[in-house]
Amino acid sequence: MEKTRQKNLPANERRNVTVEAVIDLAATTNPGDITTAAIAKHMKLTQGALFRHFPNKEAIWQAVMKWVAERLMSRIKKAADGMESPLEAMQAMFMAHIAFVSEHPGAPRMLFGELQGAKATPAKRLAHALLKQYAERLNELIETAKSRGELPRELDNQAAATLFIGTIQGLIMQSLISGDMEQMRQAAPGVFAIYRRGIAGTVPEKRGE
Amino acid sequence: MEKTRQKNLPANERRNVTVEAVIDLAATTNPGDITTAAIAKHMKLTQGALFRHFPNKEAIWQAVMKWVAERLMSRIKKAADGMESPLEAMQAMFMAHIAFVSEHPGAPRMLFGELQGAKATPAKRLAHALLKQYAERLNELIETAKSRGELPRELDNQAAATLFIGTIQGLIMQSLISGDMEQMRQAAPGVFAIYRRGIAGTVPEKRGE
DNA sequence: GGAAAGATAGTGACTAATTACTATCTCTAG
DNA sequence: CTAGAGATAGTAATTAGTCACTATCTTTCC
Q1: Which residue is closest to B32 within chain A, CA to CA?
Q2: Which of B14, B4, B69, B6 is nearest to B40 (CA)?
Q3: Which of A76, A50, A85 is nearest to A164 (CA)?
Q4: How far B137 CA sits from the closest chain A CA (Å)?
Q5: Is B113 an 8 Å CB contact of chain A?
Q6: Of the candidates B10, B157, B198, B173, which has an alpha carbon nearest to the alpha carbon of residue A201?
Q7: Which of A32, A123, A197, B179 could covalently link to A61 via disulfide, CB atoms 3.0 to 4.6 Å apart?
Q8: For A117-162, how does the pLDDT look when each residue is reduced to its tens digit (9 = 90+)?
Q9: Nearest to B160, CA basis, from A193, A153, A15
Q10: Do B166 and A163 touch (CB under 8 A)?
Q11: How far is C-alpha B193 from the geometric centre of its chain's CA atoms?
């Protein structure tokens, strides 16, 4: 129906809008430099009003991280679901992750920005949990792939998982730097192809040792 | 000469000390949160004195980026020098880069932190130039490797270079997150092995299957 | 050789702007 | 009518940058 241009949003809704505003801002602004005033302005509110819905700034960041974690994991899970081969599933995850990031460039910036901080904030804990969950999921896939003969037994799980995540992070970083998210989408398939060949390729015969 | 415990350093020296202080601080502090007061304190100086040697904060960052760029490129060049095979050279560069970062954890933080900013500061331009130079060097190596038959002609140069840098950035990111730089050194060889197989590996023979 | 003069480096106290956060009043929707 | 949502106008803390002054080195010239 007609959006009644209502000024006063219910608290719950207002919190959602706030989170989206932050993600929006993070697309172009260094997360550490995002002020409560900037957030409020971006959603056409006064700065003080923000604190009716969040006890402090940290709570805002926490809400944002939760949003990112939920959306990203759901996207990735959906992409990998129903895939027969674990290698195909990994490829789907890779692409889904890239797509998500290119739709929400602010998301990785928040993640990285928060994780760099020295002190352990609640938001940081959320980010950590996200990464851990991600790594576990990868490990399962790799193991399944091994048992199906899609990946060689000798493959170093740890290195493979590290490289998977690292590759994505590297792509993100470079897009962040160039400021062009489209570039990432284009580079992704070629990059994953190399990665896939790297883990699947036959390992040189191990003699003796 | 006996180090005369002199308090007043010559301007040039003082600038160097400042840069080192910043790199030092960046190892444990989010670069955006490094204040001029913190820098001054870390080098046992008053805050005001800093501005006798730098016109403003931006100039400090610029000096730091120059330091990082020079040291890193020199290390990498030295490592690759005298290498017969380009693939070996790439491996040496990879390891040298990792070693440099693990010795100066503050360096990548400064780089990434600066590059994330929206506005184009002089420091950011320096960082950009560094990355560009790096990519060019990689491209040359890849081309040479191709002409020597060490890499397949069909390999996508762009993707290979992107993945090389991306892999390093990813490793750095994960070490930054875990706070353990040693981890990166340990993971590096295995990760590079996968990368190398990925670019060099013959595209799987399509025999029957 | 050594004081006087000039140059260089550092101090400590200040400022103007910006920050997260709060107290109080006003409006709006149900 | 009233409770929740927003506006207005604060506060204390922190920030980069300035300034008048002092301490320490270096050069000059008798």
Answers
A1: A32
A2: B14
A3: A76
A4: 17
A5: yes
A6: B198
A7: A123
A8: 777 888 989 988 999 999 999 999 999 999 999 999 999 999 999 9
A9: A193
A10: no
A11: 21
Task: Compute the CA torsion angle A84, A87, A93, A96 (nearest 10 deg).
Answer: -90
Task: Give the contacts of B42 (CB within 8 A, at least 6 positions apart).
Answer: B21, B24, B25
Distance from the B8 Cα atom to the nearest Cα atom in chain A, whole angstroms: 33
What's the CA gap between A44 and B80, in Å, rounded?
Answer: 55
* Tokens 């060097």 sit on residue: B137
Q: Which nucleotide is nearest to A8 (CA to C1')?
A: D5
Evaluate whether A98 touches A188 at the Cβ level (below 8 Å). yes
Task: Return the residue of A nearest to B163 by Cα.
Answer: A191
Nearest CB among B28, B30, B166 relative to A170 is that of B166
Q: What is the ipTM of this complex?
A: 0.85
Check residue B32 and report its DSSP letter: G
Q: Which domains does chain A have, with CATH numbers?
A: 58-200 (1.10.357.10)
Shortest CA distance from B194: residue in chain A: A198
Cβ neighbours, 10 Å, residue A158: 15
How far is CA B101 from its chain centroid? 6
Specify whether the CB–CB gap between B66 and B127 falls below 8 A. no
Q: Across the interface, do B169 and A168 touch by the CB < 8 Å criterion?
A: no
For chain A, positions 3-62, list CB contacts with chain B under 8 A: 28-30, 32-33
pTM score: 0.89
Burial class (CB in 10 A: 0-12, 13-18, 19+), B27: middle
Cβ–Cβ gap B163/A195 under 8 Å: yes
Cα B76 off chain centre by? 10
User: What pLDDT, in 10s, does the model give residues A30-77?
Assistant: 899 999 999 999 999 999 999 999 999 999 999 999 999 999 999 999
Spatial contact of A48 and A23, defined as CB atoms under 8 Å apart: no
